[in-house]
């Protein structure tokens, strides 16, 4: 075999012939033009490294082969000196001087900080951030994120509540709770960049400044408060729905104590897996319309009540009826199937009922079947009504979950109705009047 340091003259053309193999006599016998135009490797030379490429493919460029690196690696594999490499620390600079290759430092040191050691200084800056000065609309004609031009209808301007910049709708879809100094308890619109910064803090903000963790301000439901005289059919927030439901339960507690025969049977309430409490306004002649809002709660496995979820009810009635009335409904969900029906985004109810109201006193009794994308169930409806109305009708209603109201109350845009009703959420402090009214209702029925 020819010496590696000697210069040899070959009869064929090859750009990568610095390291020759075989004796000179065999090389001189090779024709001037051969196919393919790279050296033929014998089967005995299996350990030949073709400069980082597969020997069956043509070479793409000239690369120096360091035999010392190859031999050192082979010796390490044979002797087993490479075992336990994962437990070693990153190699020092002296190792690199020996031309020994190692894995990157990211294999030994994580590229992201561990969860148990967060960067508190960064979070502190965000939690103590001050409200920004919003940029005027005239400061830019394009989105500050995607550079889309603003238009009157298809691409309007939206300010980020955290940085004050102007963005299009697609670049500001996120909703986050703001730090304490913003004095905002409802989730606010933020741009995508600010959403990524604020998202890790949402758990802290939900448990500290959201509406659900605040103490209920309106908890007086007796005759000394004008709000307790009459429930309005539309509640603008979850706090309004909690007050309305507490007032409705207080009225039923009074009925249960004064005239037990007109109250909801204790046997039915004791087995109830949930309650839906709504205030609905109804008016019409032969064809009636009804609209109202309320909330639904379910009973947990330990006997306690879940957090509330807001509802909206819209329906029609047909039959021998005339007049108008304001009704406070209590819908008894007697099994888990009925509870899962209210976990649906939207469900339908069909039932028949008899209604009679004259002045401030009236009663409505209904039995209806409800069906939604989470299931179906049979429910019993009891209500007290005020107004001038009489009739026998067939009722059809659409009940939807007011997801925007839930988000504003709990502060979590990812929270679903199933999470609320099936016990994934703790009882909110703001709903304490509701739980007190439920306790009084069951205590009055047991007497």
From TrEMBL:
<dbReference type="InterPro" id="IPR007461">
    <property type="entry name" value="Ysc84_actin-binding"/>
</dbReference>
<dbReference type="InterPro" id="IPR017455">
    <property type="entry name" value="Znf_FYVE-rel"/>
</dbReference>
<dbReference type="InterPro" id="IPR000306">
    <property type="entry name" value="Znf_FYVE"/>
</dbReference>
<protein>
    <recommendedName>
        <fullName>FYVE-type domain-containing protein</fullName>
    </recommendedName>
</protein>
<dbReference type="GO" id="GO:0008270">
    <property type="term" value="F:zinc ion binding"/>
</dbReference>
<dbReference type="InterPro" id="IPR013083">
    <property type="entry name" value="Znf_RING/FYVE/PHD"/>
</dbReference>
<dbReference type="GO" id="GO:0005776">
    <property type="term" value="C:autophagosome"/>
</dbReference>
<dbReference type="GO" id="GO:0034045">
    <property type="term" value="C:phagophore assembly site membrane"/>
</dbReference>
<dbReference type="InterPro" id="IPR051702">
    <property type="entry name" value="SH3_domain_YSC84-like"/>
</dbReference>
<feature type="compositionally biased region" description="Acidic residues">
    <location>
        <begin position="42"/>
        <end position="54"/>
    </location>
</feature>
<keyword id="KW-0479">Metal-binding</keyword>
<dbReference type="Pfam" id="PF01363">
    <property type="entry name" value="FYVE"/>
</dbReference>
<dbReference type="Pfam" id="PF04366">
    <property type="entry name" value="Ysc84"/>
</dbReference>
<feature type="domain" description="FYVE-type">
    <location>
        <begin position="137"/>
        <end position="199"/>
    </location>
</feature>
<keyword id="KW-0863">Zinc-finger</keyword>
<keyword id="KW-0862">Zinc</keyword>
<feature type="region of interest" description="Disordered">
    <location>
        <begin position="1"/>
        <end position="60"/>
    </location>
</feature>
<dbReference type="GO" id="GO:0035091">
    <property type="term" value="F:phosphatidylinositol binding"/>
</dbReference>
<dbReference type="InterPro" id="IPR011011">
    <property type="entry name" value="Znf_FYVE_PHD"/>
</dbReference>
């Amino acid at each position: 075999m020819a010496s590696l340091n000697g210069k040899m003259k070959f009869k064929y053309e090859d750009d990568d012939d610095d390291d020759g193999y075989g004796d000179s006599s065999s090389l001189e016998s090779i024709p001037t033009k051969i196919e393919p135009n790279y050296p033929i490797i014998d089967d005995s030379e299996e350990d030949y490294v073709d400069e980082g490429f597969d020997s069956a493919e043509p070479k793409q460029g000239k690369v120096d082969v360091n035999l010392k690196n190859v031999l050192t690696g082979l010796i390490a594999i044979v002797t087993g000196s490479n075992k336990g490499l994962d437990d070693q620390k990153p190699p020092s600079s002296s190792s690199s001087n020996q031309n020994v290759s190692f894995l990157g430092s990211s294999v030994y040191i994580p590229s992201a900080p561990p969860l148990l050691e967060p960067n508190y200084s960064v979070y502190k800056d965000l939690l103590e951030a001050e409200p920004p000065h919003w940029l005027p609309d005239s400061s830019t004609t394009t989105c500050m994120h995607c550079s889309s031009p603003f238009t009157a209808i298809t691409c309007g301007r939206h300010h980020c509540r955290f940085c004050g910049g102007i963005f299009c709708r697609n670049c500001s879809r996120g909703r986050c709770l703001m730090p304490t100094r913003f004095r905002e308890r409802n989730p606010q619109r933020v741009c995508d960049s600010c959403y990524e910064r604020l998202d890790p803090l949402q758990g802290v903000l939900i448990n500290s400044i959201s509406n659900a963790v605040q103490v209920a301000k309106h908890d007086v439901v007796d005759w000394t408060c004008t709000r307790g005289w009459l429930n309005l059919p539309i509640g603008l927030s979850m706090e309004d729905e909690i007050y309305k439901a507490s007032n409705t339960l207080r009225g039923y507690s009074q009925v249960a104590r004064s005239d037990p025969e007109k109250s909801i049977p204790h046997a039915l309430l004791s087995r109830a897996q949930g309650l839906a409490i709504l205030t609905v306004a109804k008016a019409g002649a032969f064809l009636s319309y009804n609209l109202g809002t309320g909330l639904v709660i379910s009973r947990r496995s330990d006997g306690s009540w879940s957090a509330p979820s807001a509802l909206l009810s819209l329906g029609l009635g047909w039959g021998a009826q005339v007049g108008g009335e304001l009704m406070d409904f209590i819908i008894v969900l007697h099994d888990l199937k009925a509870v899962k029906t209210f976990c649906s985004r939207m469900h339908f109810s069909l039932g028949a009922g008899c209604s009679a109201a004259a002045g401030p006193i009236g009663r409505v009794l209904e039995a209806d079947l409800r069906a939604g994308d989470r299931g179906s169930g049979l429910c019993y409806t009891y209500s007290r009504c005020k107004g001038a109305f009489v009739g026998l009708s067939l009722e059809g209603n659409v009940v939807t979950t007011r997801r925007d109201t839930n988000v504003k109350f709990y502060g979590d845009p990812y929270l679903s109705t199933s999470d609320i009703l099936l016990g994934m959420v703790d009882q909110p402090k703001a709903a304490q009047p509701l739980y007190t009214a439920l306790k009084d209702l069951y205590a009055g029925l047991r007497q």
